[in-house]
Amino acid sequence: MLDHVKAEMIIRDNIERDWLIPFMNFVDNFRYNKNISLVTKPISINHNRFDAILTATTCYLCHEQNFMIPHWVNDVPYCKPAWFLIDIDRLKPFMSIESPIWFKVYNIFVSRNFLVRI
Q1: Origin, by domain of life (predicted)?
Q2: What would the pLDDT profile of 14-46 be if each residue is shown by its tens digit?
């Protein structure tokens, strides 16, 4: 089982390159274990964009699992400037509309199936 500190270290170590695999491993682990302890403490890697996406994802997953959203999420600033995970201009209007609210709050725009796993 992955603990909070290990999850944070894995994501931090891979943040600028290949961040999506450890990020999705975190998502999968949270869903599989249904373990709120992974997010009871702030997940911060001191990077505005990635702190925001981790926070938005925490909110999304807690809502999905009917867990109480941790209070620390209120202390994380939104992403500046806005981050569109797919940086294709013609897709930005679609992502602006279909992005889940938890991501919009943090100024992050994704496709509606961003966290859908097979």
Answers
A1: Bacteria
A2: 555 678 888 898 999 999 999 899 899 998 888
- Coil/strand/helix, residue 84: strand
Q: How many residues does the chain have?
A: 118
Instruction: Report the SS3 class of residue 88.
Output: coil
What's the Cα-to-Cα distance from 87 to each of 16, 23, 42, rounded to whole Å? 16, 19, 28
Structure tokens that stand for 67 in this block: 């867990």
Q: What dihedral do alpha carbons 112, 16, 41, 96 form, nearest 10°?
A: -20
3-state secondary structure of 67: coil
Q: Which of 8-22, 34-48, 58-72, 75-89 has the lowest mean pLDDT?
A: 8-22
Tokens representing 19 are 């961040």
